[in-house]
Amino acid sequence: MTPTPVHIPDHILAAIYDHARDAFPAECCGWLSGPAGECAVDEARRVENVQDEGGHPTHPGRGVETAYVFSPEDLLALNESLDGDRPARVIYHSHPNGRAYMSDIDRRVATSPWGDGPAYPVQQLVVGVEDGRVTEAALFAWSDAEQGFIELARFNER
């Protein structure tokens, strides 16, 4: 069974695209939250990409232009949201190469260390940005049938 895409309203996409343009040439990152029990979001939370501090779980030496990582405080807030009335539904980040895809590293980091599902019960939005212009965005979710992330939706450039 294919997962249902989380509904992301246009004004939330616009906020994420602004974040991607503001962060360029670095990767931006953050998450989207919404009311518990709904498959929709109504809030975007920008997170500082602290990759330059070397905290990436698989590639600590990469820079902010090719990797992202949440601060421990932001990661704790994301985790705490999952049990609240406005849980995180989507983690987002950008690719400054203009392409919206889940790289092998993205997939590895978003997958449980035991390989049995997603690391977090959220979907993944990747925004392609190049020369400060958003080129595309794509939404991904874990598929039990595929035992990996699959693309659910594509969004137009802005």
What secondary-structure arrangement, pairings included, does this model have?
Elements: H1 10-23, E1 29-33, E2 43-47, H2 72-81, E3 88-95, H3 104-110, E4 123-130, E5 133-143, E6 148-155
Parallel strand pairs: 3-4
Antiparallel strand pairs: 1-2, 1-3, 4-5, 5-6
* Helix/strand class: alpha+beta
Quickly count the helices.
Answer: 3
Largest sheet: 6 strands, mixed
Low-confidence stretches: none
**Share of helix, binned:** 10-25%
In spatial order, strands of the major sheet run 2-1-3-4-5-6
- Rg calc: 14 Å
Summarize the helix and strand pattern as letters.
HEEHEHEEE
Overall number of strands: 6
Outline, from the CA principal axes?
globular
Describe the structure.
By secondary structure, this protein is an alpha+beta fold. The chain has helices spanning 10-23, 72-81, 104-110, and strands at residues 29-33, 43-47, 88-95, 123-130, 133-143, 148-155. The protein has a 6-stranded mixed β-sheet. It starts with 9 loop residues before the first helix and ends with a strand.
